[in-house]
Amino acid sequence: MAKFYYQAITENGSSVSGAIDADSAEGATNALVARGYIPQKITDASKSGIGFFLTELQEKLTTVKLPELILFTKQLRTLIRAGVPMLKLLQVLENQSENIKLKRIIVSISQDIREGGSLYDGFRKYPSVFSPLYCSMLHAGETSGALPEILDRLIYILDHDHKIRTDIRSALQYPAIVMVSLLAAFLILLTMVIPKFAFIFLKSGLQLPLPTVICMKLYAILTAYWPALILLAVGLGIFINIYLKSEIGRFRRDRLLLHLPLFGVLVRKAAMARFASIFAILQTSGISVLETMSILSETINNAALSRAFENITERLEEGRGISGPLATSPYFTPIIINMVAIGEESGNLDEMLHEAAEHYDSELEFAMKRISDSIGPLLTVCLAAMVLFFALAIYLPMWDMVKMVK
Questions:
Q1: Domains of the chain
Q2: Which end of the chain is more exposed for a tag (fewer CB within 10 A), N or C?
Q3: Is-above-0.85 flag for pTM?
């Protein structure tokens, strides 16, 4: 099986291009005709030039963002609900997608279905785009024959996840911008303003105050060792990046995030809202508790919580209930544990988890508002401290010089 690049015209007259796997150029042509395309140019990928290399590189660098995935899933649900045949449906989705990577994935899924595979078989080949949660819900929908209804629930989860990420990013954006601005202002004052005054102070023979001495020492270090400092910063950044990609690095980072002052509350509440929402919908969709825990372990986006889910799964396999194992983890709140316990006893676990998800959604909004209100005064104090430090470093020697002159 080889890869061929193609350029073709669709039934509605628009031009499309992409890649297709086939045994030969003739096989690629037949596959394109079967899709309803009119092939114009077919090139063996192994014999292609720089243009195709750049196309391949672009595809590898392209990512499918969450809003694009949500839109794709909504279009998939709508077309399935309208009764469009699967192959025609995938062709429509390919034509409508503007993401080159998603286009290639849809083409591959179409090929799998032509060969007798299922949607689940096609989607699970691309875990970087379609999470285990996404694939498991597709499988549940295909198995139960209620795929549009399952896709409705999946869209709710994706929308909910996107909203939480967007809200957290918005809450952290302002302090991040202010901290970068403070750092830039500190470096500008230290390297451009302080040196001019330092020359005057040194010539005057004054006994310099501590803030001025600190500034001059920092300036001397920066000017003398700036290449080494840049190399150190780059090396440290590479080391941290490699470390955080390791299993132990991810675990320690995520555990630290859960215990950070101020922001740790935000991370924990977001995790609880995501846990309750996904758990409730997976239970409603008929997925077993053990499989739900496995899916949550892979989709919760926190290594510390993933490890907790693995421990909980081991206890569940021993025949214990859900609330007991949850209580053994330090990350699950009493509200979640109590809601699960009540749901188990009453037989309404999915309903209780929905209520818990709604509770933590409102708690998350309140926590973000509280953090936003707290960050303003905190950043003002930091700004005032920096201004005071540089003011003392400059004006204390100047006052001494004025006294000398008098």
A1: 2-61 (3.10.20), 66-157 (1.20.81.30), 188-406 (1.20.81.30)
A2: C
A3: no
